[in-house]
Amino acid sequence: MPSTVAAVTFDCRDLDRLIEFWSAVLGYRLVDRGFSLDGTEYAQIKGDTGPPLMFEQVPKGGRRPEKNPVHLDLDPPPGEHAAEVERIIGLGARRAEVGLDPRLPWVVLLDPEDNEFCVIDHDRNEPTVNG
Length: 131
Hints:
17% of the residues lie in helices and 36% in strands. A 9-stranded mixed beta sheet has the order 6-7-8-5-1-4-3-2-9, covered by helices on one side. The chain has helices spanning 15-26, 81-90, and strands at 4-12, 29-35, 41-46, 53-57, 70-75, 94-95, 106-110, 116-120, 129-130. It is an alpha+beta fold. It is globular, with a radius of gyration of 15 Å. The protein is built from 2 helices and 9 strands, in the order E-H-E-E-E-E-H-E-E-E-E. It has a single domain, classed as 2,3-Dihydroxybiphenyl 1,2-Dioxygenase, domain 1 (Roll), CATH 3.10.180.
């Protein structure tokens, strides 16, 4: 079974501004906010329809120049993360060498034109510090 879109993820400098803006535009509400294991502050907004939006605060130095500022987070069926990553690689994706902490529950891949996207492993829970 193929993956579904878990979230459309935006890099941002002003987390509060984007939460307020996109919540008003889409009629979404804040459903989660905190810090990921790598110290990145994030927030997720969600509505009754459409995919959730995730916002990740970029470091003070800005985003990596090669990283696209908006990307998909894909959600494979439970227990199928590794198989789904391999299936997507077989379709033409490749692993991105981004130096993530291996404890993080996602893999970063590149599509055939080098756009990043993540495949989340919900069977692995990432420790977070909610703020």
